[in-house]
Amino acid sequence: xxxxxxGHNDVALxxxxxxxxxxxxxxxxxxxxGHIDLPRARAGGLVGGLFALYVPSPERLDLAALSGETYDIxxxxxxxxxxxxxxxxxxxxxxxSVAQRSDGAVSICTSTTDIRAARDRGSLAVVVHLEGAxxxxxxxxxxxxxxxxxxxxxxxxxSRPTIFGHGVPLRFPGSPDTGPGLxxxxxxxIKACNRLGIMIDLSHLNxxxxxxxxxxxxxxxxxxxxxxxxxxxxxxxxxxxQLDAIxxxxxxxxxxxxxxxxxxDGQMRAxxxxxxxxxxxxxxxxxxxxxRVAIGSDFDGALxxxxxxxxxxxxxxxxxLAQHGYDxxxxxxxxxxxxxxxxxxxxx
Length: 348
Ligand code: ZN
Known about the structure:
The protein is an alpha/beta fold. It has a single domain, classed as Alpha-Beta Barrel (TIM Barrel). The chain has helices at about 10-15, 25-30, 40-45, 80-100, 110-120, 140-150, 185-195, 205-215, 240-250, 260, 275-290, 315-325, 330-345, and strands at about 5-10, 45-55, 70-75, 105-110, 125-130, 150-155, 170, 200, 220-225, 250-255, 295. Strand 5 (about 125-130), helix 6 (about 140-150) and strand 6 form a beta-alpha-beta unit. The protein starts with a strand and ends with a helix. The relative contact order is 0.15. The mean pLDDT is about 95. The structure holds zinc ion (ZN). Zinc ion (ZN) binds near residues 131, 203, 204, 225 and 301.
């Protein structure tokens, strides 16, 4: 079994949205819901990952449109900061409760030393990520509060705008070059994250925001869950110019399993060929080098190919990659060590 550290999941959102039963207990003992719980993580070799705190908009996104030949889903309105804080606190409490009630089987980690120690004792390593800084105020006081509570990774935006910047819409086909970059508050946020030791995630930012972070940040450039725009031309994927900048900064891209970001036709379909995961991985490795590519599944946040279906079937991907010629040394890098190299520089 190959130990996998994963750059993105939305377990916290799934637990938050569950309206019956005890979502924490079900996560620990196993459930039919979603893609990750503790038994399925163990069975599939998932040893840790970035667990996103994400605030859903009150208006529903028309995700059915993602099965159309072209689509352009309007971005939701910005969130109220205090309302977003309430959701973030609830999701963080759920994740902490998972760790507290796990009898050591799940650990909140704030350094690579913590992550390696958790892996060695068989405990699922949780690094807390904030997907969209909607809950953070312009004077950044709440950023410090979240840091003290364990936050070590942040995206300035999920796709809807924040006071810090602008994200990309769900659109096909489309470029990530969709408008203005970081605001002045966004530039202060980047500097504050560098100072505190919070990794900055570029995955949902538009292209100008990406270049603003590239010029301001003193950390390697990181896209936790994005794919190659040259194969699947959606705004959420990275253009060759962006990939080149990530390589030059010695950064990283986490391969996203979301079918809409894998397929050349941009469609969200469960019957997607998992050969497309290999096609993106090959492309990313060719462009970035094998120390700058990793996994960023989007488990519990996206429709993934049914041939994988959940964290339990991660070995299916590695079996396929082995048949394709990937060897043990490469698996160790893309499944675990590449994330450790980046996190060591960003948060330790
Ligand atoms: Zn995302």
